[in-house]
């Protein structure tokens, strides 16, 4: 979903002007607050306005390339004499696409450059070349003939840090410098898990479907880059340990970004004891690196401003603006049913011309998850939310769903 809730999540770099449509109404007198460690809703990303002065129809939002950092941090000649994310970083600075970086982000780029160099040197051993002959990795017989795991000689990288510290951009700098013929994949974590559950459904009659799923994943990509690694769903938590045991055994190299340190993943979740072995495996197979920057770079570009309307009795006003977005006289919004996954449907109270209208409680106060939101985003490019409450311990589940809704909305690179 290209334009939904842009101000609430870390932007990926965008290199052209775009129209951004975002309307959210909060019936409370203040913006939502933080909920625990996993909810990162920053009210400073919005400009608070009186609804009477707002002209949504004519307002243009612009998106600019997000600066990597603000303070000078130079690279050595040795570092720029080779290919990789550090070279691309310097090129973008030279071209004015980025400002010179702070020490925290350059340290992270150094880690990514180290991994890049190791992968290039070990490409044959790791069987990264898609055109090279590779062994059969999946299947019941192979998994039983293989007497020992074939771990990759190269460890992956787990990057974590606060929101807005540039994790996604840094990983993209790394990923898009890798050879195009490599068996590599970059995907959002929620999208990845949605694919995993779909594949498990397809292989549910087998004795160990996770082994087959891991084989299919590793046949497609040896280098797996997962953006915004965040475990909130018990079904995901129970699958991850066994899935990644198989994946690591098949030589998968994981690069991940997250807001949380490995030890804090799925903190307080149901049956977390069954998830703990995954954390141990993650720390064993990946170098863990914290991005220590305290600056939220999302707030440094005009492209991340949106409108957050504060006040009471605004529902009628919001629906008028919703009709303006659709286009006067071009379409009448009607209730719709959207297909999500595995034959399930999601009810949309009002929708037309790629715009959907939801009261907050109908999309975040019901037992919905990432799969439902992905299905919604495939059909609608603009989402209007009415009646966002003040978040607190009394509605923590709704707050987490709101974060998931924001988190899974795909943005253009």
TrEMBL record:
InterPro entries noted in UniProt: ATPase_AFG1-like, P-loop_NTPase
Top-rank lineage group of the source organism: Eukaryota
Gene Ontology cellular component terms for the protein in this record: chloroplast; mitochondrion
One Gene Ontology molecular-function label: ATP binding
Keyword DNA damage: no
SUPFAM superfamilies xrefs: P-loop containing nucleoside triphosphate hydrolases
Record's keyword terms, sorted: ATP-binding, Nucleotide-binding
PANTHER family the UniProt entry points to: AFG1-LIKE ATPASE FAMILY PROTEIN, ATPASE N2B
Family per record: Belongs to the AFG1 ATPase family.
Protein name stated in the entry: AFG1-like ATPase isoform C
Organism: Glycine soja
